Amino acid sequence: MSQTKPQPAIGKAQRLLASLVLLALLVQVLLFFVGLDDPIHRIKVLWGKKLEERRAIVWQPGSALKAIAERFPPASRLYLMYPQPLVHWNSVYYFYPRLVTVTMTNATYRTDGEYAAWNERPTESWLITNGFNYVMNFKNGGQVWEVRPGIGAELSQAEDTNASQ
């Protein structure tokens, strides 16, 4: 007669622990499929649309900046006055290959404090000497000036108008 070895009894704590591990695994698998729902929905919404339509759906400011940028020739050099961090960074991206700058001294602007302390209003002669074509100001609705002799007076007049509002 052969003897069977006695099986060790599985304790209640081990069963509970195994159940919790299995439950956690099932929840993780379920969450994978729930998380997959968002990208699938986005794909459905954007499927078959042109790049500009997709850009307008996903991020409207990018679409607006791209539309503004396309009004300028690709070789343009633009000076952005009174910059704000996100507007400046996104302008550099969406205006490419056009050059967009906010500094005459090659200063770096990275923090909100540095942008708040911005004080590099260009002179007419500096703009002409450095080959800038346009001056932009997105403050108070946005304005664009073409660089030509006499722009200094126009910029001063626009600043006086903005200051009085």
| Count of all domains | 2
Question: Strand share of the residues?
Answer: 5-15%
Give me the number of helical elements: 7
Major sheet attributes? 4 strands, mixed
Mean pLDDT: 85
* Spans of at least 5 consecutive residues with low confidence: none
Structural class: alpha/beta
* Percent in helix: 40-55%
**In whole angstroms, how far apart are the ends?**
105 Å
The topology string of helices and strands comes to HHHEHEHHEEH
As a whole number of angstroms, the C-alpha radius of gyration is 30 Å
Q: How many β-strand runs?
A: 4
* Spatial ordering of strands, largest sheet: 2-1-3-4
CA-based shape: elongated
Notes on the structure:
The structure is a single chain. With 165 residues, the chain is α/β, with parallel strands linked by helices. It folds into 2 domains: 13-47; 67-164, no CATH class. Helix content is 53%, strand content 10%. It is built from 7 helices and 4 strands, in the order H-H-H-E-H-E-H-H-E-E-H. It has helices at 12-46, 51-58, 60-69, 85-94, 112-116, 124-129, 151-164; strands at 77-81, 99-101, 134-137, 143-146. A 4-stranded mixed sheet has the order 2-1-3-4, with helices on both faces. The chain is elongated. It starts with 11 loop residues before the first helix and ends with a helix.
